[in-house]
Amino acid sequence: MKRLIKVMSGNQLTARILRSTSWVLVGFGGAQVIRLASNLILTRILFPEAFGLMALVTVITVGLMMFSDVGIGPSISQSKRGDDPAFLNTAWTIQAMRGLTLWVITLLLAWPMAQFYDQPDLAIYLPVAGLALVISGLLPTRIETARRHLIFGRLTILDLISQLIGLSLMVILALITHSVMALVLGGMFSAATKLILTWRYLPGAPNRFQLEREAVNEQVHFGKWIFLSTAFTFVSSQGDKAILGKLLTLGVLGVYNIGFFLASFPIMLGMTMAHQLMIPIYRDRPPGASPGNRAQLRKMRLFMSGGLFAMLGFMSFAGPWLVDLLYDDRYEQAGAMIVLMACAFLPQVIGLSYDRAALAAGDSRGAFIFSGIRSLVQMVLLYVGFTTYGLIGGLVSYGIAMVLVHPVLIALALRHQAWDAAHDVGFAVLALVITVVAVWLHGDAIVALAAIR
Questions:
Q1: What's the whole-number mean pLDDT along residues 194-221?
Q2: Over the chain, what is the mean pLDDT?
Q3: Nearest to 336, CA basis, from 345, 323, 347, 348
Q4: What DSSP assignment string belongs to 181-210?
Q5: Domain boundaries, the chain
Q6: pLDDT at residue 113 above 70?
Q7: Fewer CB within 10 Å: N-end or C-end of the chain?
Q8: Cα gap 162→27, rounded to integer Å
Q9: Is the pLDDT of residue 237 over 90?
């Protein structure tokens, strides 16, 4: 314990990495506990169709955010001017203008989306949900500054408090209204609480409106590829719900959303760690700079992949039993969905950190190319898999897509000397073993999904 405290103390990079990793785990774990608790309560108050409708609202609002992402966070993390007040004020101004623009777009999209999905209530819920985009656009850049310097303690606590308040209000509204509006307003309350807490309690100078020409040019130059990359990331992360929202009934989509929530817990943790930690780490310790950097990054990648594989393996083995334990019979099919989704996420874990090496080196174009190819392959296989083999084909297609595009990711990692061949081969074999055992354990439950088309 004394050695651990000594290693984690001080301002050296290793100490900051260990402290930041601990806080990321605390923050993500706490957030998921809060989400799970509220989810278990809400599934008993509301109905599967409510979660299906909320999934459509989320797809559209998240899609707008990702299709308009100009890379403010990564830009601050990797830029030499990342601590310059003029640079930060410019980033905040662009972010605020973007949030207001996105809300106007939700107003314009509300009726067409309601018609496309044949859900008239979307015309009411989307404009309300869009207000959270305006609020999020006003979040201070002190959040990104804390991430840039791997200082996560206070930020994590404030984030958890805001989520707890928002989700508590969501449950209260659900008890009163028994309406999807409770879910929509809960998201807005969480965003508003986070805005107030971060402005009040995060250290640093407050932002003000400013557009410095040099800062705008730098952020636009770096962010143009981030913009395109995150647009494709939306397709790969939310495109399944956008497509299945049109092909499935609202009730089945709601059950799918519950299954996705549980199965995606490990991969979301991995993506959070990669997003918040890996750019500063690759920036300060480029793998091509020395054998020592490569060895340390190899250890870090091994621990991260091993932990995520253990969690995904557990979900693939225990998914149906967890659903039986936590939910009522209306959500029974989510168990088999968890098995297939957890196995499909395994290939993604293997290369999870490689594109962060590209972003840390300023190669946003390379990250965009990989993201675009991945999204295209993923959506084509999802549609073909679902229309040919039903929901089973759609779920399996995700893992197949990640295997097919992994060579593209290897090429990107090689360019920045970040590829670890032994790591990839070892975990590929382990992924195959986990998949075979999980399908053998729950074959009957998986076959029952074949009727869903």
A1: 85
A2: 82
A3: 323
A4: HHHHHHHHHHHHHHHHHHHHHS-SPPP---
A5: 1-242, 248-453
A6: yes
A7: N
A8: 12
A9: no
CA 136 to chain centre: 16
Distance (Å, whole) CA 377 – CA 178: 39
Task: Summarize pLDDT for 408-439 with one digit per residue, the tens.
Answer: 888 888 888 888 888 899 999 999 999 999 99
Residue 284 in tokens: 């300060």
Q: Give the whole-angstrom CA distance, residue 191 versus residue 90.
A: 22
Q: Which DSSP letter does residue 275 get?
A: I
List all residues 6 or more positions away from 312 whose beta carbon is below 8 Å from its beta carbon: 266, 267, 342, 343, 345, 346, 349, 434
Note if the pTM is more than 0.85.
no
Q: Which amino acid is at 46?
A: L
